[in-house]
Amino acid sequence: MEMQHSPSSLEIGMVSSSHEKPNRSQRIRNKSSQFEDPFLSEHEPRLIYINDPNRTNDRYEFTGNEIRTSKYTFITFLPKNLFIQFHRLAYVYFLVIAALNQLPPLAVFGRTASLFPLLFVLFVTAIKDGYEDWRRHRSDRNENNREALVLQHGDFRSKKWKNICAGEVVKIHANETMPCDMVLLGTSDPNGIAYIQTMNLDGESNLKTRYARQETTSMIYDNAYSGLIKCEQPNRNIYEFTATMELNSQRVPLGQSNIVLRGCQLKNTEWIIGVVVYAGQETKAMLNSTISPSKSSNLESYMNRETLWLSAFLLITCSVVATGMGVWLFKNSKNLDALPYYRRKYFTFGRENRKDFKFYGIALEIFFSFLSSVIIFQIMIPISLYITMELVRVGQSYFMIGDTRMYDSSSGSRFQCRSLNINEDLGQIRYIFSDKTGTLTQNKMEFQQASIYGKNYGSSLQFLDLSSRSLTRQCLSLSHFAESLRQSGRKPKVNVDVALMALLNQLLIGDERLAAHDFFLTLAACNTVIPVSTESSHDLTNEVDDTGAIDYQGESPDEQALVTAASAYGYTLAERTTGHIVIDVLGERLRLDVLGLHEFDSVRKRMSVVVRFPDNNVKVLVKGADTSMLSILKVEIGDGVYDSLHVKIREATENHLSAYSSEGLRTLVIGSKNLTDAEFSEWQERYEEASTSMHERSAKLRQAAGLVECNLTLLGATAIEDKLQDGVPEAIESLRQAGIKVWVLTGDKQETAISIGLSCRLLTQTMHSIIINGSSEVECRRLLAEAKAKFGIKSADFGRDSQGTEDLYHGDIFKLRPSNGHLSESAVQNFELTGVIAGDKSEYNEKVTNFDGTELALIIDGSSLVYILEKDLESELFDLATSCKVVICCRVAPLQKAGIVDLIKSRTSDMTLAIGDGANDVSMIQMADVGVGICGQEGRQAVMASDFAMGQFRFLKRLLLVHGHWNYQRIAYMILYNFYRNAVFVLMLFWYILYTAYSATLALTDWSSVFYSLIYTSVPTVVVGILDKNLSHNTLLCYPRLYEAGLRNEGYNLTLFWITMLDTLWQSLVLFYVPFFTYNISTMDIWSMGSLWTIAVVIIVNIHLAMDIQRWVLITHLAVWGSIAATFLCMVLIDSIPIFPNYGTIYNMAASRTYWLSVCLIIVLGLLPRFLCKVVYQTFWPSDIQIAREAELFKKLPQQLGSRPASDIS
C-alpha cells in the first residue's frame, strides 16, 4: 500500500478531513480513537446491510473510501503553513522585531533588510513543507484512483477505490491490496481460509490466516448476497473486532479472524469476497496512522534555559541604552538643535531642509529608544541556531544511516533515524531498559527438551537428516516411523530424542504412552499455526498430500517451534480449518473437530482448544505459562496410589522447569482434560453466548474458558531455546563500563531471566542479589524495607525509613523469598543469593558495613510490581533500584514496562533509553527519552514507534559510544559557539552606542548586520557540527569510559556558558576599543569604522572556531577560510553600489596599512586569553578526552587501534 510507505503516513491521524460536514460516525470515531472503549455500547452498533449500500448509509452518512493525508490545499497552504510555522515562539519574536522596524520612529535598519532573515526562513520552510505535501497529494491521488471489483447489478465490475462505500460487496484477487476493511464472506478455498500479509499495517512479514464463516459460503455459490452485520464503531484496535451477523434468522459471531483490513495484501489465495464495514478515514489503518509522541532533546531544554538568561541580558542592555538616552536628553533638552547627535530640525538640502524633526517628548523618546535597542540587539536571541541545529541533525543522521558497521546482513536491515530531534541525547544515556526475547536473544526458537510424565527427554538429542532417508542406528528398527517422517515432508533437519521416539513407537497402551500421545497432540492442535504446502502455494487448499512439503505459517515463533517439534516426532499438523484439524499421527490421519478455541491473552497466560475425537470423546487441550498452569491442575484424584504418582510427576515436572529455566530456556506447561457431557454442555452454552456478545466479549470468553481450564491432568512441559544474539555480552559489558545502567524487563520467568543475565554478562557471580517476590502490598512493603535495611540504603525520607526499620525488626524473623516460600535451587547454584537473609538488629548493623561498595542486583517480578507501582511504594522501589548495579524485572506486562521507565524518568534528570522488538515494547519505547526498535521476528511495531531502529542489539554499543559521543560533543559545542558568535556581535554594537549619545546610530550597514548570521559565519558552524570529532571510533570503542563525559555534562553546562560569556565580553571590548583608540584622532567616517568592525568580527569568530576544531578535512578548510573570503567579497559588492552610503569604503580602507594592522591586533589580543587558558588547563588539568586524544595523536594507543580504517564514518 503506497500510502503507508510515504512520509504522509505519519500524519494521517492529524489531518483527517475537516471540510466534510460533521456526522455521527465522525464524532464517534473521534472518541474511539482515544482508546476510551473498543466499542461504545451494545445498544449502538454499526449496522451494515450486505450488498445494500443505500440502506446502510441511509440512517447515518458514513464516510466514503476517499482518503486525504495531505495537510494543505492550494487555497489553505499559505495561511495554514504560516500559522504552523509561527507556533515557534522565536519566529513570533522576530516577526514583532521586523514589524517594529517598519515604524518610522523605530526604523533602525532598512525595512527590506529587517524582513529578509525572517522571510528567508519562512520561505525555505514553506518550500520544504509544500514539496512534502505535494508528495502526499500525489500519493493520495494514486491511492484513491486505484480500482477494485465491486458487485454491481449482479456482476463484479471495476470501481475506483474512492467511490466504494460501506455495505458494498468487493472481490479481491491474489496479490491485490484491500481497499477498505471488509468482513469475509467467502474465499477460493473450500474451507473459507484466506492468507493475508499485514506488512503495510503492522510491519509483520509473516502470513496471517483469516476465515470466512461456513454460514456465508452459500452466498458465493448462489450469488445471493444478503444479511445484516452489527459491528462495533470504528476504532484503532487492529487486533480485535467485535460483531455479529444475522443471516437467515441465525446469529453468527464475528471476530478478528473474520475481517481483513485496508492495506493488507492477499497471498496464496486465488480470491476472496467480502462486505465493506469501514471505509476511508474510518478504517483501522487510517485511524492508526498518527504521529508518535514528539520528543525534545536534553540539550535543547538547557539551551532554552540559557536563552532566558540571554533574554534577560538583552532587556538589561536595552534598559541601559534607554536610561542613558533619557539622561542625555534631559541634560541637553535646551540645545538639542545645536548638538551633532540630535536635532529638532533637519539641516539638509532638498524638501526636508529646516523642517521640524518629530520630537515625541522625553518619555516617548526613552520608550522608542528601548524598542530601537531591541531591534539592534535582536540577534542576541539566535534565530539561526534553530535552522543550524536542524541542518546539523540531518547531516549527523545521514552518516549514522550510512555506517556500514551498523548494517545487519542477516536480516538486510540498515540503521534508521526515525526522529531528528534527539541525536545528541544518544551521548547522555544513563539507563537502558531492554526487552529480552528478540532483543538480547534471536527470537528464533528451537525445541530442545521436554518433560513428559515426569521424565526428562532431550539429553540424548540426535541429529537426524530426514531428507536422506537415513536415521541413526538406534532408530533403524523403527522403519515405518522413519518412512512416515520422510513422507510427511517435514523440514529436512531436526533434533530428536531417540528414547522419546522409541516411546512414541510403542502401542497406545499405558499411562506414560497415553500422556506422550496427548502431549504431542496438544503441541500440534493447540495453536493458530497453518500448514502451507510449498509445492502448491498458488492454489492452496490447506490440505497437505502425503508427499507434499510443509511449511508452517504462524504469528508466534514459539508456536511454530512447537508444531515443528511435534511434526519431527511424528505428529504432523496437516490441515486446519475453522471447524476441524487433521493431524498425521505416525502415518495415520486423525481428524479432530474444533468445537472452540480460547486464544492466549495476557490475563490468563494460556491457550486452550476444545476438540471432539472420532469416538465422540470431547477433550480440552491446554498450554500456558507455569505460573498460570500449575494452579489449575487436578489436586485430588481419590485413588491413593494414583494420587501419589501424580504428586511425584508434578514435583518432577517442576524440578525440570527449574532446570530448564536455569539454562535460559523458555518453558510452557502442557495439560489436558476429558470433558463430561454436562461440562461440555455448560461450556458450549457460555461459549456461544460470549462469542455472539457485542459487549465485553473478551471478558465473557475468559469466563467461559475458566469452565474447562480447571482440574487439568498434567502432561508435561516444553523447553525452547532462544539463543543470545551475537555480540550481546560484549556490548553489555562495554555499556556498563561506560557508566550506563542496563535493566532487563521481560515476560519470562525469574530463573530464565537470571540465566540469560549471567550468560550476557549483565549479572556476575560476585554480585549480591535482592529478590522481591511479593504476593501482597504488605509483603512487598516489608521486602523492600528489609532490603534497604540490609544494605544500608537510605531513603529520601530517612526519618520515616528508619522508623520503619525499627518496627520491622521487633518481631518475627523474615526471609526474602518468592511467594511460594522458597528459592529455587537453580538460582542458588547459578547466582549468589545473599539478599536480606534476616537476623537481629546487631547482625543488620554488622552487615551494613560489610556490604559497603558491593555491587547489588535487584530481581523483581510482575506480581510484586502490581502492588509496588503505587505512589506510596514507588519511592521505596526507586531508592532500592537506583542503588543496584543491575535490575531485572520478570513476568512484567507492557504497561508495567512503561511504569518502570517512568519511575526513573519522573524522579531523575538522567536520560533513559528503551530498546525492544515487539508490540509489547511500544509503550516502553514511547515512554523513554530515546526509543530504539529492533527489526526482529515479532514484526515492526516496535520499529514504527521508535526514534531509531537497528537490526541487532550489539549495534547499540556503537550507536551510543561512538555516534552518541560525537553527536553530543558537536551539538553542545555548536550551541555554545552560536551564543558566543551572536553575543560578541551585539556587545560590539552596544559599546558603540554608548559613544553615540545612546542613540540608535549604527556604523554597520543594514546588509552587513543581516548577512553576519546568515552568510558570514553560518556555514562553518554547520560543517563542524556534522564532521568534527574529537576521537576516532576505535578509541571510543576501546575505552568506553570516555562516554562518561556526556553523563557529566562536560560538553555543555552552566559553568561553560558563563565562561564563554566572559570570553565574549573580552573579545567584544577588544573588537570595539582597538579601532576606537587607533582611529581616535583621525577623520574616519562611521562607515569605514563599521567596515573594519565587520571584517574583524568575522575573522575573530572563525579563528575562534578554528582553534577548537579537532578534525580538519578539506570541506572544513573550505568552510572556515571560505567564509572569511566570502565576507570580503560581499563587502566589495555592497560597497560597489553607488546608492549605498558606504559606497567605495572598502577600497579606501584596504589600501591602508593601519587597517590590516588593526585587524591583526584585534585577533591576537582577542584570542590570546583563550589560547593561554586552554594551554594551562589542558597541561595541568587534562580531561579524559584530552588524554586519549594526545595518546591517539602520538600513536600511544594499543597496537590494534593504530591502523585507521579505510572509511571512517562520521
UniProtKB/TrEMBL annotation:
So where's the catalytic machinery, residue-wise? Answer: D435
Q: Which GO terms describe its biological process?
A: phospholipid translocation
Which residues are recorded as binding Mg(2+)?
Answer: D435, T437, D917, D921
User: In what residue span(s) does the P-type ATPase N-terminal domain sit?
Assistant: 48-113
Which keywords belong to this entry?
Answer: ATP-binding, Magnesium, Membrane, Metal-binding, Nucleotide-binding, Translocase, Transmembrane, Transmembrane helix
Q: Where's the P-type ATPase C-terminal domain?
A: 943-1183
Q: What does UniProt give as GO cellular component?
A: plasma membrane
Q: Which family does it belong to?
A: Belongs to the cation transport ATPase (P-type) (TC 3.A.3) family. Type IV subfamily.
Matching entries from PANTHER family are given as: PHOSPHOLIPID-TRANSPORTING ATPASE, PROBABLE PHOSPHOLIPID-TRANSPORTING ATPASE
Name used for this protein in its record: Phospholipid-transporting ATPase
